[in-house]
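User: Here's a protein and a ligand (nicotinamide-adenine-dinucleotide). What would the complex look like?
Assistant: Let me lay out the input and then the predicted complex.
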Amino acid sequence: MTALKTWKLWIGGKSVPAASGRTYDAINPADGKAIARVAEGGAADIDAAVRAAAEAAVGPWSRLTPRARGKILLRLSTLIRENLDELAFLETRNAGKTLSDSRDEMGLAADVFEYYAGAANKQFGETIPVGPSGVGFTLREPVGVCGLIVPWNFPLVIATWKLGPALACGNTVVLKPSQETPLTALRLAELAAEAGLPEGVLNVVPGPGSGCGSALVEHPLVRKISFTGSTKTGTWIAKAAADTMKRVSLELGGKSPNIVFDDADLDLCVEKSVWSVFGNAGQDCCARSRALVHRKVYDKFVERFVARTKKIVVGPPEKKGSQIGPLISLHQRERVCRYIDIGETEGAELLCGGKLPGGALAKGFYLTPAVFAGAGANMKITREEIFGPVVAIMPFKDEDEAITLANDSPYGLSGSLWTRDVGRVLRVSRAVQTGVLSVNSSSSVHLEAPFGGYKSSGVGRELGLKALDLYTEIKSVFVSGV
Ligand code: NAD
């Protein structure tokens, strides 16, 4: 048996063990086996990383021109592409996503750095007419040390959504990946050093939420927290960060509606709708986990949706042809299975899925995609984020009811709308309370466009040029003419 590689923390441009000396196993969700040992960061490591980042914030990095910063990010983008196979394989083994999904995500990670490389020297201030003599103008300045905390469902991609704009704006960062999925973030740190990022500008400290993540949120030298994860953790972070008046942006949970009108192109709609909830094994904050379907096409939609779902290939993520891999952990699968039991107890009809595959898949954390029909608006399966391959389908009678049902949720992240009526597209798009909405499409993420949530789905907008606002302070200067 070959010894497992140990991945250390990345602090001040070096690979270092945890101050406590502790390590833990990174697990492959496809078979439950350890694939690596990882240094487990704690409060002392966060302190070292924050201090390295604070020092780097006033070091050579602060004296680079925006164009030079952009060139480093562009080199990093190229290095991601050159190492795409290795990164995709790491992500697949650690997060259980299919190799083709991982390859797409690594491509997107490269695209994100390319985009923000270009944005680095295109952040403009304003000149402001404040009086007859003199001039007012604004400067955009880096916020300082940013703490970036990310989840396990899109481990590297979500990290890049924060790293790209944070670094383009001249900040320094401490990235805390999810304890479950730290490997691609640690490899990225090595590539960033190869790309020429000065020591201490990017630090990576994997570890538990409580003790490691919390230490980052509470650290007095951190000026900004950007968090993606559950609404429960995000709520704690918003309160804890207030003590040191940090800037906070939050990308949180969702329970997104998929609204199907009777004039929709049903073939296209069913094909896309299936993937909009079951892609990444349903572990997607934008998952369209509530399908709201007009009564006239309800039966037809349900029948076709179930037939299509049954054809999905659940299998080993490294195997060609697999379309859905395992869930991230045994704990997560148990949680999802509890919701399936609850759905049945509540009286929704389980039409397919919700089973643990046997045979060669028995050791992994697999679950077949589950379709509930006849779901009621007040059931737990329609109100709570399950974060697994489960959809609740319910009928509506008209446009008003569709809007009411869509908005009857504590969340407001994403959603889809299927209709060929342009007037309805405009009316419903305005009425639905979500930060992102796609019409006759299931895609939520376009790196050039802002992304984020209404209500309990978060605060702030990532991606696009809007993300630069999250990582800059605006200084207003008045120069007197007399
Ligand atoms: P989580 O909230 O449990 O953890 C997210 C991250 O926060 C992890 O790195 C974790 O270690 C850390 N953390 C946990 N407790 C902390 C604390 N007290 N202080 C600081 N950090 C802490 O979420 P998860 O289970 O990893 O991810 C699933 C959730 O993420 C879902 O709710 C999903 O909807 C959400 N999510 C949202 C988006 C979005 O863009 N809106 C994207 C992906 C996932």
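Summary: The chain has a mean pLDDT of 97.
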